[in-house]
Amino acid sequence: MFEMNATRLRVWLFTLACLIAAIALPFLAPTYYVQFFAKALIMGMLAMALNLVVGHGGLVSLCHAAFFGLAGYVLALLSPRYDAASLLTTFPLAVLSSAAAGLVIGALALRTRGIYFIMVTLAFGEMLFFFFHDTKVAGGSDGIFINVRPEIAVAGRQLLDLDKPITFYFFVLACLVGVVALLTMVVRSPFGHALAAARDNERRARSLGFPIFRIRLIAFALSGGLAGVAGYLAAAQFGFVAPQMLGWHQSATVLVMVLIGGLRSVTGPLVGALVLIGLEEVLKAHLDNWKLAEGLIIIGIVVMLPNGIRQIWPMIFGSSPEVPVDAGRAEAEHAVAEARHA
Fold first, then answer.
1. Full residue range of the structural domain in which residue 139 is found
2. DSSP letters of 209-266?
3. For the chain, how many helices (H) and strands (E)?
4. Would you say 310 and 264 are in contact if contact means Cβ atoms under 8 Å apart?
5. Residue 226: C-alpha distances to residues 6, 42, 219, 233, 279 (Å)
6. Total structural domains in the chain?
C-alpha cells in the first residue's frame, strides 16, 4: 500500500511538472515554437481519441482522419468570409457533427470484425475524402480558407481572440487537459472496464451480460467527437481546410503515434505524437532523405519498445500508473453482478 501511494505521488508530481512546463512555454520560447507545440498537442488529442477504440477497445480504425477533417470543414463552412465565427456556436456544432458521423459509421462498421472492420472504416473514410475532393461543396480539391479565427464576443466585446498565438496555445492546452481528464474518467469507469473486457475476451464479456455492440458504438462515437475537437483546433490554427485532412494517410500517421506512445495508456499517444512530430522537425532541418531516417527510427522504437514509450515509465517510477487490466475486469464483473442482484 505504501509503495502504491508513493508511486501515485510520483505520478502526480511528474504530471504537475509537465503542466507547469507547458504553461511556462509561451513565456520562454519564441512564437514559432509556441505554434509548433500547439500543433503537436492538437495531434496528440487526435491520437488519444483514436486510442480509445484501438488501445482500449481493440478496434483498429482507419477513418478517424475523416472525423478530424469533418470538424474542420464545419468550422470553415460556418465561418463568415471576412468576420470571426462564434466559438460558442461553431465549436459544439463541429464536435457534434464528428460524433454523429462516428455514430453512423460505427453503427455499420461494428457489425464486422477483424480485417473487415478495418476495411469498412477505411472505405467510409475514403468516401468522405472524395465527397469533399470531387464536389464544390467546400472548394473541392483546392480546399477552403478560414480568413479569421473564431472568437468569443458578448455584446460586441471580445472576450477570447484565438488570433493571438499565446491565447490560441492556452486554449489548446485547456482542451487537452479536458480531453485527458475525460478519457481518464471513461477508461477507469465501469464503462471503460467493460470496453476493455470486450477487447480481451468478447465471448466471456457477452456471457457476463455486457451489451458489446452498444458499448463499442458509444466509444466509437465519443472517439469521433474527440477527434472533432482536434480537427476544429487544427483548422483554426492553419486557417485552411483541404481534403487531405480526411485522407487515410492521416489516419495511418496517427495510428503510428498511438503505437509509439503505447496502446494501453491514456496519455501515451500524446507522448507518441510529441515524439513523432518533434522527430520530423529535427530530421527535416538536418537531412534531405529525412523520411528514410524517420522510418528506420520508428522501426527501432517498435522493436526495442513493443509496448510503446510507456515502457520507459517503470524504469523511472518503478511501476505503471495505469489501472491493471485484471483489476479493471474484476471491477467490471463485480458491477455486472451487482446489477443482476438489483
1. 7-14+34-341
2. T--HHHHHHHHHHHHHHHHHHHHHHHHHHHSEE-GGGGSHHHHHHHHHHHHHH-TT-S
3. 14, 4
4. yes
5. 32, 11, 11, 11, 25
6. 1
Q: What's the chain's average pLDDT?
A: 86
- How far apart, in whole angstroms, are the C-alpha atoms of residue 266 and residue 52? 8
What's the CATH code of the domain at 57? 1.10.3470
In degrees, rounded to 5, the angle at the alpha carbon of residue 101 between the alpha carbons of residues 59 and 88 is 120
- Residue 94: is its pLDDT beyond 90? yes
Cell numbers given for 253: 500517421
Q: Which three cell numbers stand for residue 164?
A: 493571438
Can you tell me the mean pLDDT for 16-20?
Answer: 88
CB under 8 Å to 30, separation ≥6 — which residues? none
- Determine, yes or no, domain membership for 20: no
- Dihedral (Cα; 293, 307, 42, 75), 10-degree rounding: 110
2 lies in a domain? no
Q: Give the whole-angstrom CA distance, residue 49 versus residue 45.
A: 6
Give yes or no for residue 170 having a pLDDT over 70: yes
Between 228 and 6, residue with greater pLDDT: 228
pLDDT at position 7 is 65
* 3-state DSSP assignment of residue 321: coil
Whether residue 198 is contained in a domain is answered as yes
**Mean pLDDT along residues 28-44:** 92
pTM: 0.88
Highest average pLDDT, of 59-63, 156-160, 263-267, comes from 59-63
Per-residue CA distances from 272 to 26, 46, 110, 302 (Å): 22, 11, 27, 11
Is the model's pLDDT at 91 over the cut of 80?
yes
How far apart (Å, rounded) are the C-alpha atoms in residues 332 and 328? 6
Residue 172 lies in a domain: yes
Largest Cα–Cα separation, the chain: 65
Q: What is the pLDDT of residue 338?
A: 39
The predicted pLDDT at position 320 comes to 52
